[in-house]
Amino acid sequence: MIVKAKISDLDEWLFVEDVPDVYSQNNILAEKQVMIQRPPVHMSNYQLTTGGLFLLHSVMQFDQPTNIHTDISGETITSHFIFYKNSSGKKVTSASHGFSRHNIRYIPSAVSNHELPQNTEYTYFMLVLSKAYYFSLIDRHSVLHERFVRDIEKGQFTSFSNEDMAVTPEMRKVINDIRDCRQTGELKRLHTESKILELLMYQLEQLRNDAVPSKEEVFKTGDFERLEQARTILNERFVTPPTHKELAKEILLNEFKLRTGFKEYYGVTMYDYITRLRMEKAKRLLLDEKMSIYEVSGLSGFKHQANFSKAFKKYFGLLPSGVKT
Prior knowledge:
Blueprint (H helix, E strand, L loop, with lengths): L1 E6 L7 E4 L11 E9 L2 E10 L2 E10 L3 E21 L14 E16 L3 E11 H7 L8 H9 L3 E2 L5 E2 L2 H12 L4 H26 L3 H5 L2 H17 L6 H8 L3 H12 L3 H18 L5 H7 L5 H12 L3 H5 L1
Antiparallel strand pairs: 1-2, 1-6, 3-4, 4-5, 5-8, 6-7, 6-8, 7-9, 7-10
């Protein structure tokens, strides 16, 4: 398979990768860092290639509206994620740009052009897998992707979900783990392969839930924007979060849609989402700020230290005292 991309106004390709379709555990990983600072383009690319796999993590921003041309030749399964920020560092909330999104697609070969507006920072993460690599990770006959595999066997372009879905915190963490891995050689390959499988599992779980027909009958486009607003509120106020009823009233969405929609949209309940935010903050305060367990319990939203210690052990598998030792 051949994967390449270029800025329409520039003569040279950003990258051209001829990736063998054959997957083998003995394949060597090749890594590359590419920086482009040539107005209107500001781009930093991390690329990883091995048999059956091309991985790209790109952070880009443009001084003027810019077209990116991509060309993929050969049968591939592509997992893509895109995140947006405007120049002030705030998340883009314009419906024309969307929010952070992901999907899985089968592409028998495709050429596409995407116009990207100026003054918006994009973080783009893409996995391009050969069929052999994809089916080495997930069995061809798995119930996880029955319809998807039927379309692959027909050789026709297909997306796992009709609409791109919101990126969950678990997915973000796996992408960061892949990008930040400092291992080399065999350890690097094992780490990368395990994280790709983990990422696909999170995607398949959420995208399969989205395939339930009744969901589209219940939720409207505006509801999803309100769910994004709900997550922003929880991110800012997870120490003393509003109740479901209070939050539903604040975002103008009924409580049923809030509870069920949040779980379907982000793949986690609001309770578990708040718990994750609290626990990650608690770990950071214990390790980085060297605070006492008593201090951390209060700053993490717990009235009693005993309840905090119990929740911390349930989440991380050890008591807060074990982290501080």
